TrEMBL record:
SUPFAM superfamilies the record matches: FAD/NAD(P)-binding domain, FAD/NAD-linked reductases, dimerisation (C-terminal) domain
The protein, known as: Dihydrolipoyl dehydrogenase
Cofactor: how and how many bound: Binds 1 FAD per subunit.
Additional remark text: The active site is a redox-active disulfide bond.
Family: Belongs to the class-I pyridine nucleotide-disulfide oxidoreductase family.
Pyridine nucleotide-disulphide oxidoreductase dimerisation domain residues: 358-467
Keyword Oxidoreductase appears in the UniProt entry: yes
The protein's required cofactors: FAD
Location in the cell: Cytoplasm
Domain FAD/NAD(P)-binding: 8-339
Amino acid sequence: MENLMKNFDVIVIGGGPGGYIAAIRAAQLGFNTACIDAWKNAKGAPAPGGTCTNVGCIPSKALLQSSEHFEHAAHGFAEHGVEVSGLKLNLAQMLKRKDEVVGQNNAGILFLFKKNKVSFFNGLGSFVAAKDGGYEIKVEGTEETLFAKYVVVATGSNARALPGVPFDEDRVLSNDGALRIPDVPKKLGVIGAGVIGLEMGSVWRRLGAEVTVLEGLPNFLGAVDETIAKEAHKLFTKQGLKISLGVKVGEIKTTKKGVTVNYTDNAGAAQVLECDRLIVSIGRTPNTHGLNTEAVGLKLDERGFIAVDDECRTNLPGVWAVGDVVRGPMLAHKAEEEGVAVAERIAGQHGHVNFNTIPWVIYTSPEIAWVGKTEQQLKAEGVAYKAGSFPFMANGRARALGDTTGMVKMLADAKTDEILGVHIIGPVASELISECVMAMEFKAASEDIARICHAHPTLSEAVKEAALAVDKRTLNF
């Protein structure tokens, strides 16, 4: 007996930040909406939220917070007059808490689906055929077949493995395995000094591992403003991360006891890294596995991303794609903005995503956050600019916190004073950057921030002082 097909206005394939947000916004706009997502938790229950919620942003921030507490207790509390004796690490509890935080987020998304009347299907979504002005979508592992005029693909990305060195999530780890190492490694290797490598390296270093980071590029954090990157390299090295730049990784051997990495250093000398476990964080690849794009002729570009225009339209009428599976930065908040914009475009509205004002954050300690152009980009583009910076060392709230590392750096157009970029390394940089994003979105001048009253004492005063520094008139430095 043939199953009845379930009809919707909009079907979203993927329940990560781009997908679940697109589904909720579509439902808010009056569309009968379904979201299909394949993630399940360890107990086999639905776990929407994608990589971000399950093995990315959320669990990594939970472990970063927990490991920072541990490091503060071991090394920082005494300065505040808080004496701790007999400090012990309960790693099982730390990992359990991380899993609970993930579970709360999974449950929150399921609640939001219910609240917004989004129909949720737990399974792998794939195209079956284009017909009757829409698309037939199968949910693998179920008997469900769905149909809708509009489809939004939000299937995310996967960790990129080194050629010939697959992830076993025991000795050779992706971001997934890096979040659930059952015991603190004595020696931990990390290949790739990007966001994931530095964050995961920081977690396990704080908990007692000896961490060595191998990076193929000659410059540290090449996408970050040079001034900030140099400061970060100095601080991370001082903390105990061993960072080698310009290396060329050769043969990697794994045994039940550990991993051996052969590489040449930036001087061309052969080196060997022996470690208990190895995290490989060399980027991510678009995930179109099981989507069955061939069935409907959905076009991919030369790098395997779903090909889209500036508004996230694919080559197929009514089919859109957002997030990591399309061009642009692989950031959860970029995916969310595209998800909202696409839902609004389907409704005939004008969704807004400005790539120039998307903030970037690295949740190390200190945090690194930036928006807009770096100083090296402005130089390369021949843009006349003014720069101003202010150290947290001269900020009263930072002194009270006991965290005075880092600075705020602001770049503005030499003629118009419009803010072109802001770069922060320091305490809660991830929160401080939002003021700068808003300022740039409204095309503010550095003087605008300089003349806005900021509460005292706050870390945000460092942003104001950096704006004052653009005009060489800081008040507290």
